[in-house]
Amino acid sequence: MKKEKSNKKNEQTREKQEGFVVRIFNFFNQYNKIIYGIAIGLLVVVAALMAINKFYLVPQSEKASALMTVPIDYYMKGDSLSLINALEGDEDNIGFLDIATSFILTNTSNTANYFAGMCYLKLGEKDEALNYLQKFTHKEDTYWYGAQALISDLYDDQGEIAKAIKYCKKAAESKDPYLGPVNLFKLGQLYERENEWEKAASAYQSIKDKFYSEYQKMNIDKFLERALVNKNK
User: Which of 112, 122, 164, 220 would be 96's cystine partner, CB 3.0–4.6 Å?
Assistant: First the structure.
């Protein structure tokens, strides 16, 4: 009896499997032209992307990287004329602004946005600095966290405290042993100014938990204690 039930069950399973195979086969026969078309289309897209990368993006990236050398040299000099040349170029070389717009699909374009923002910041043109620093999108790059801190400072200068906090929070995500605790401290200070003492305490506590050696050097205890006292009022 058990054997008959087992055989019957196996037969039903086999019939289901065969039925599934038949349905797949029938579906393929009915739509084979569409399926082939989609497959060929995907292969064409992949091949096109590979060709664009090899014959356009890679050469563009190499060219853009080579062009960055001169404006970076100007940037490093630091005087006003050199900073303008770094931004706009000279008679023989283009600057960060042209590199950012002419090689827009490359990582170098993104880096040029960062340096353009830094040039404007050093020249005291804060609105332009803010504009270009916000275009810098390399989150994995240490410079990105520094850029977020600068954006926070620029918004703070404008009195836009909510935006200053927003960008300082991003900067405080850095795991860098210097940038991380410094930006967490700045975040705590911003929260204090808004009387958000619990959040301020949390920022100071994060310095202790994540960067203990810097926590000791920065004498954070008094700030953490003050935040906790005010939090409990």
Answer: 112
